[in-house]
Automatic annotation (TrEMBL):
Identification of the protein by name: Peptidase S8/S53 domain-containing protein
Species assigned in the record: Coemansia spiralis
Active site, renumbered: 151, 204, 520
Keyword hit for Signal: yes
Keyword Transcription regulation: no
InterPro entries in UniProt: Peptidase_S8/S53_dom (IPR000209), Peptidase_S8/S53_dom_sf (IPR036852), Peptidase_S8_Asp-AS (IPR023827), Peptidase_S8_His-AS (IPR022398), Peptidase_S8_Ser-AS (IPR023828), Peptidase_S8_subtilisin-like (IPR050131), Peptidase_S8_subtilisin-rel (IPR015500)
Domain Peptidase S8/S53 intervals: 142-559
GO terms, molecular function: serine-type endopeptidase activity
Annotated signal sequence range: 1-20
Amino acid sequence: MRPFSFGGVLLATFIYIANAEFTSSHKLHKRIHVYPPYVQVKPRSYIVQFEDYLPPTHAGHFYSMPGVDVQHHYSNIFNGISVRTDRSADSTHLASVNGVKRVWPVRVYTAAGYSTGLNATYPYIHKPTGVERAIEELGLDGKGIHIGIVDTGVDYNHPELGNCWKTKGCMWQYGADLVGDKYNPYTENPIIVPKQTPMDCAGHGTHVSGIIAGQGPTVYGVARNVTLGMYRVFGCPGTDPGAGQTSDDFIIKGIEMAVADKSDIISLSLGGGSWSDGPSSIAASNAVKQGIVVVAAVGNDGTGGLHTVSAPAVGNGVLGVGSVDSWNYTVSMMMIVNEHTSQSVFITPSNTVGYPFIFETDTPVVSLVNNSDVEACVNITQDLTGIVAVFEITSNCSPLSTIASIAQAGAVGIILIYTKPGLTYPTLETGKIPLVVISSDNGQFLLDAIAQGPTTIKALKSNPTITIPADKGSGQISTFSSMGPDPNLGLSPHVMAPGGYIYSTFPLKFGSYFVLSGTSMATPYVSGAVALLKQARPNLTVKEIGEILLTTAHPIINSKTKKVEHPYKGGSGLINVYDAIKSRAKIDPPMLSLNSTTRGVITTYQDLSALGNVRWTARTIKLTNMDVNNNMRIDIDYSISDSLSMYYKNGSIAYTPRVWTGNATTGGINNTEPVVYIPDAVKSIPSGKTGQYTVILVAPKGLAECEGWYFGGQLNFNLKWDGDLNITPYHVPFAGFNGDYTKLDVLAPLGSGFPFLGDENAKPVDPKNLVVSASNPISVYFSMALPSHLGILQLVDANNKKIGYLPQGYATDIPHTCPTCSVPNISVIVNGTVFTDTDLTNAIEAPAGKYYLHSAFLRPFGNTSNSDDYQTWDSPEFTIG
């Protein structure tokens, strides 16, 4: 802890053309949204938003428009429609109608990507979150609270999920199938045949439902007596691209139906993009304005580092949830037998949905570790018919290719030895062959047994399960959990909950129970916790619920550094619903997003002027004593997190954030940690009254601004009421950038190898010996260090005349990219075709000749009319023939 020293928007375009062209393009950009090329969109489908002052009846203009088919008419949380068009109509036609505020292509989404792993059952994950005490001491169960879930559906026939649908006394009273089994948003004419009920054919929604309200005896949910609604917006998984995915139009429809059904809470374990002004984010934020708590997953791109949180979790007022690993593993067992040993070995549940790792007869097991074919990454020549094969992930080959080769050789099962700590492992598509994972220790035992002689797996009708303690990662931030900040330096995630290795319900036809990991799993946990809080304190507003949940969360302490985790990784900390229910103080705001700082001498307070020329900001915090009978005494200190940077010292990008690990106690003006001051801090607040604090935060001057450090920590309000023996801690996270954020480049450093011109396989090409044409195209590849709200790529001739925009060369909402992210990089095709308009509808062919590409990317908070606010890059010259 650090004592105080005193007691006492991004809306832009970047077009490097004449001013007249710039003005026209800017006006068009304000109405038509064009996604970057990596974004999958529904063919010829758009979402049209009307101006706020217009009534829903304004949609009537579109029902008679030639070439336009209105698909959905929204009204209560989104003023607009979704449409499909034929080839005679496009976004320009839609935007030309009076009263249209914005037009978006319909974006495609997946459920917040999840992977199989392991976890704990009740009560192990409920004790650290305060849920156990809320249930057992306060008798709470969520009764009377309605939660709407927008997901893949639910197997409501599951005995631990009620085995009922909309009957009297059933937990499922609301919901619908919006899409049917065959819905695929990638197709020209999606098959939309909703069923009478939202039966789950994927598993994700059933798993989410068990986390909220599993009835036991195997899975005990957070709020077992809530009333639920399921709004199915995903089709069934399949081999075709787009199968098992959904799109903006149906997500909005699902949210709207949940609002109409009077949901108190809406749970969204899905996401994509990183901006708060997309249609699904707007819909979620509008639901919040109507008094509904919206809880959303921040995403699973944490291995990509900073700036990986996703929408709609970044929507205004939406509660964005990150994941921590659980405290126990629920594992299965298999029996290994040979003439020398007979022993049980812990395994994960089968990674292959619908194909459990059980065998009717004793089944031989062989090792492919050090197998020459596996090591050489070629097809396995050994006959594996009727055999279970064991192998390790190596750096030489893709595990997917090895799995396919093993299956082709006739194996009936696969055991993967995972050499990393714990029992987590990546999702691996295995087709129709069961795959389980064992730890390196158990793997070595198995390999030793095989080396002794013929070894078999004992025939079992089912795999027994057992709960065992987790390794040192329990309660720590999951490696997959996406990190903040959002593109506007907003603090995200907001809170954390168990999401790593969660054992929950699964469709009966897929085995009834399964282990998944993801922020998808943490989100319903928070939704259930909010239900308990609303049941206990029904008069709280949405804003108050957020304030209380965040300020009573327990900051996550890094097990290695013993410091509080950076708020861009851990938000406010792990939720504790019992402490939230019992809270007697309210802090506004509950977190400080320091998206603007000033460099200079702090002249406002004379005692601080001695700090000299520093980067600083001041914020106001209001602390309310909600106890109407007792006065409250306040002592304030603060905890500092290790600063994070997305760059190494040599300037190359660090997808795993670089951490400032030095002992930052140098003091004085060269301190390498941020410093917090609260001049004239109030020491007590009477019952029912509010105190106001000015908080001055000074960035770490001892860290070089050119190295791009993000600093952060927690303000600790240690409160004690009259008659109390113990102090009750409340926390407010703060985080910001150590420098002028508006001056940062958004492209990855040139040393990263980007941008470059390359072939369809992303192999760099030499433009000097290249003739580009429709039959011989190339692409330009970009990697984004920071999100950029809008980007343009133009073809420029040898006389420096702009010919037009490349196909997909005008785009908005460009995210941070990384090798392990949902978006590894961005590529735009170059084939001689360009467009004269920003909607990319008026195509022309560039004459033969010499050309180069001009790109410009708006920096954070950039001004669209200021050319200095853009980062530009020009390609080498090439020939179009």
